[in-house]
Amino acid sequence: MKLARPFIRLPLNFDAARLAQEAAQLAPAAWRAHPLGLKGNSAVALISRAGGDNDEFGGRMTATPRLGGCPYHRQVMASFNEVLARSRLMKLDAGCEVQNHVDFNYHWYTRVRIHIPVITNPGVMFHCGDEKVHMAAGECWIFDNWRRHNVVNGSRQDRIHLVIDLSGSSRFWKMVRQALKAGQGNGSDRFEFLPYEPDKRVEILTENYNISPVMAPGEIDALVAELVREFADHPGNDPILVERYRLILTDFASDWRETWHRYGISKQGLPHYLRLLDRVKGELHPERRALLIFANDIGVNPVIVQRILRAALAPEVREQFFEDVAN
Questions:
Q1: Tell me, what's the pLDDT at 187?
Q2: Closest Cα to residue 58, out of 50, 67, 49?
Q3: Contact 191, 12 (CB under 8 A)
Q4: pLDDT of res. 321
Q5: Partners of residue 163 on adjacent β-strands
Q6: pTM to 2 decimals?
Q7: pLDDT the model gives residue 38
Q8: Distance between CA 268 and CA 213 in Å, rounded?
Q9: Based on the number of CB atoms within 10 Å of its own CB, is 21 exposed (0-12), middle (13-18) or buried (19 or more)?
């Protein structure tokens, strides 16, 4: 999600020692390797699809059994009073890094990632855009993942962060605006500390509806319009190809709307929607970086595929929608 600054520190502090104590109780087998096999990157699922050991973004999100054994983690996560998406403990081994990248799939278009350092040291640096920070233990940060970013653990100690994904209600974004207005100073009066309360029981709210069987035409229109602006603004892009891509995407949006008006989320529409998706894939330039995004210089093709085409159709959740309406 785009933010006004590369990094924003939220006015919250947490008991890092208590978080570290709970994290230390997790068995080594709980730490799953990064799905792309990135060296030294592993995670423990705390909120996941159906509460399982997976890295999925879509579907019903529930707390995992491991989160049940971490009462202060639960209190910290519940303290935001927000509907939470996939959330994890993330470890970066000593001497390793999270490579420079941009988060551009559909999930990240409307979600921000909260980082709460559990175990860290000054040798861990987080880079985003043209800025870098060391996030100290117990602090609370968000960052703009539409900018290029990476993390370097230049120390001899493994780093662990509690990482919480959410879209955020107006309450959350009001807190962010207040944090921006207050600036990035370290005045202790600005930060609320949340202690561990042994007898406190909390409720964690999690996403139930994060993908649709068929994306609504209005959302398709919005995604297409913003993406066209992103690559049309890049001064190095071929203007002829820019216009070609603009027509590919706007024609797709028009035909999606027409198909939606006839079929909605019915099964009968599935082959028609699939043909539209296949048509766009077949019209893209074979070079994935033939056009670039102005904000971060990444190729347009992967963004089209991940943010729009793969998210536009999810027939596997169709029955859930009908079952929930019936209940």
A1: 47
A2: 49
A3: yes
A4: 81
A5: 88, 115
A6: 0.94
A7: 86
A8: 13
A9: middle
Radius of gyration of the chain (CA): 21
Single-letter amino acid code for the residue at 105: N
The predicted structure's pLDDT at residue 186: 46
Can you give the chain as a three-state secondary structure string?
CCCCCCEEECCEEECHHHHHHHHHCCCHHHCEECCCCCCCEEEEEEEEECCCCCCCCCCCEEECHHHHCCHHHHHHHHCCCCEEEEEEEEEECCCCEEEEECCCCHHHHCCEEEEEEEECCCCEEEEECCEEECCCCCCCEEECCCCCEEEEECCCCCEEEEEEEECCCHHHHHHHHHHHHHCCCCCHHHCEEECCCCCCCCCCEECCCCCCCECCHHHHHHHHHHHHHHHHCCCCCCHHHHHHHHHHHHHHHHHHHHHHHHHCCCHHHHHHHHHHHHHHHHHCCCCCCCCECCCCCCEHHHHHHHHHHHHHECHHHHHHHHHHHHC
pLDDT at 211 over 80: yes
**At residue 57, what is the residue type?**
F
d(C-alpha 87, C-alpha 236), whole Å: 37
Class of residue 317 by CB neighbours under 10 A (exposed 0-12, middle 13-18, buried 19+): middle
* pLDDT tens digits for range 226-258: 999 999 999 999 999 999 999 999 999 999 999
CB atoms within 10 A of CB 132: 15
Express each pLDDT in 249-292 by its tens digit. Answer: 999 999 999 999 999 999 999 999 999 999 999 999 999 999 99
Cα(3)–Cα(210) distance, integer angstroms = 21
pLDDT tens digits for 163-175? Answer: 999 999 999 999 9
Q: What is the pLDDT of residues 145-164, one digit of tens each?
A: 999 999 999 999 999 999 99
Contact 143, 6 (CB under 8 A): yes
